[in-house]
Amino acid sequence: MGAFARSVRGSTLVIADDDPMSRDLLVEILRSQGYAVEAFEDGQQAIERVARGNVDLVLLDVVMPRLGGMEACRLLKGMTSDGFLPVVLVTVKTDTRSRLEGLSMGADDYVCKPYDQGELLARVEALLRIKKLSDHVAQARAKLEQLSVRDPLTGLYNYRYLHGRLSDEFRHAERHHHPVGCLVLDIDRLQAINDAGGRRAGDAALCSVAEAAVECVRSADVVSRFGGDELLVVLPGTHFAGSVAIAEQIWRRVRSSERTEETAAGLPLSVSIGVALFPSRDIRTKEELLRSADAALQQAKRDGGDRVCVFQQRGYLYTPSAGSNPFVERRRAPSNPRSAYGVEESSMGGHAGGPDAGKTPSGRRGSE
């Protein structure tokens, strides 16, 4: 047995043949070469087995009850359009028309009975070699696709992906009149963490914040690395109160004791978060949404960091009452009615909100 034959030993092969003698002989031949073989009486059973996965090659008799080899081959090729599954037709029909019909159905090879054992094994081995190479190429392509849209450090989407996805979400929101929430996160004192524990500590802090953000959002939301130490979260279909609730949830998750202990030299890990929402009076485009969220973030940093800041025209501050859910409204006189407004942490813990936040503090999605 050659080197490649040894490398494909253990491959899973599925056989469908209604003739017990022919089926058992084929099983014996293939198992003697180290293949894992599963045998069935018709094409329908073979298809059901392939649907469960982990099959490397299928051999089908052309004439079978319930579902013949030709139709089974056509269905199998439709099921595995995203990958390569070799299908071999085995039959007593030796005429050219039958061969051409089988190949037109997508069969990768055609073996006539009675077959030569050596030829059969050579054909099976050749197809398994092609499948192995095809799987390797598919895996490499998938890896390259991931690298093209993912940040290698955090595993989050990168700016390239974000640019296209945000444009799509914004167009969808405009067309269907749905809101879009936008959060920009910045790690506080990242340079101090780098100085205390080195670049590795800073990378660990960034990964910890990224993990916290992913844990707080749903699969439809987008968390991406927006800059060196900034993350951006896009919340499709999320209204004001929902966006603020998610921002606070991320803020609290990052500040948890477990994550704080992961940073270098015992330095506390915290983030500043800017929140903006489309549509609103000053936000009509994707660029304005990003600028507004960044403006809120910069205001949070100017106020000392470790807080959530909301971009809006009127400033309201809501702080949860101890042991209860209702929000207590406090007006804050803005120096600039179109600037960003922060939510500072009180002695009981802080929460950002707007006119709707007090009404639906637990609500998140405008569409839900």
Topology of helices and strands:
Blueprint: H1 3-7, E1 12-16, H2 20-31, E2 36-40, H3 43-51, E3 57-61, H4 69-79, E4 87-91, H5 96-104, E5 109-112, H6 117-149, H7 159-176, E6 180-187, H8 190-197, H9 199-216, E7 222-225, E8 230-236, H10 240-254, H11 257-260, E9 271-278, H12 286-302, E10 308-311, E11 316-320, E12 327-331, E13 340-343, E14 351-352
Parallel strand pairs: 1-2, 1-3, 3-4, 4-5, 9-10
Antiparallel strand pairs: 6-8, 6-9, 7-8, 10-13, 11-12, 11-14
Helix pairs in contact: 3-4, 8-9, 9-10
Characterise the protein shown here.
The chain is of the alpha/beta class and 368 residues long. It folds into two domains: 147 residues, Response regulator (Rossmann fold, 3-Layer(aba) Sandwich), CATH 3.40.50; 194 residues, Reverse transcriptase/Diguanylate cyclase domain (Alpha-Beta Plaits, 2-Layer Sandwich). It has twelve helices and 14 strands. A six-stranded mixed sheet has the order 7-8-6-9-10-13, sandwiched between helices. Strand 4, helix 5 and strand 5 form a beta-alpha-beta unit. The longest helix is centred in the middle third of the chain and has 33 residues. The C terminus is likely disordered.
